[in-house]
Amino acid sequence: MLWLILIVILLVALVVIGYIGFYNGLVRSRNWTDEAWSQIDVQLKRRNDLIPNLVETVKGYAQHEQATLTQVIAKRNQLTQVPSSDHQQKMAASNQLSAALKSIFALSESYPDLKANQQFGQLMTELTTTENKIAYARQLYNSSAVNYNNKIQTFPGNVIAPAHNFQKINYLATPETEKQAPKVSF
């Protein structure tokens, strides 16, 4: 009889330890996903900080391109107004800003003096590097979200997660316009 009680106590202890371990794993996965989003936020801020310098540099060379510069500034300001907790809206605003920045990069082709400007070249390099870091951070976020979502949607997570209010995390999607192949003419 004593052996039976010890076996039951051991089984209960294993279940409790397993439950605690799995719960802690869910918390770690959620925190990794939050940290991955934080990396995106850091890179978006870095890009936002570079934009005023880029705009000032371009202003001197392309004075009649004010509409382009105004659009970039407006998109930057729109991005800074989005709450950090609204990931989908933040990324939508970021995608709009990226599109506006492409138009500034295109200006350099129309203005050879601007293209030759060392400060403009450095700013373009910094922005390109930052855009690459944003893309990498998005991939990291989605990978973290997949890991987290898998844990809460598979057994025993699908039993433990609802009890502790763990919610599915949405992935960052690529806008449909960016998925289309560019049209090239020769």
UniProtKB/TrEMBL annotation:
InterPro entries: LemA-like_dom_sf (IPR023353), MamQ_LemA (IPR007156). GO terms for cellular component: membrane. Coiled coil: none annotated. It is found in: Membrane. It is a single-pass membrane protein. The keyword Membrane applies. Signal peptide: none annotated. It holds the Pfam family LemA. Keywords: Membrane, Transmembrane, Transmembrane helix. The keyword Transmembrane applies. Belongs to the LemA family. This is LemA protein.
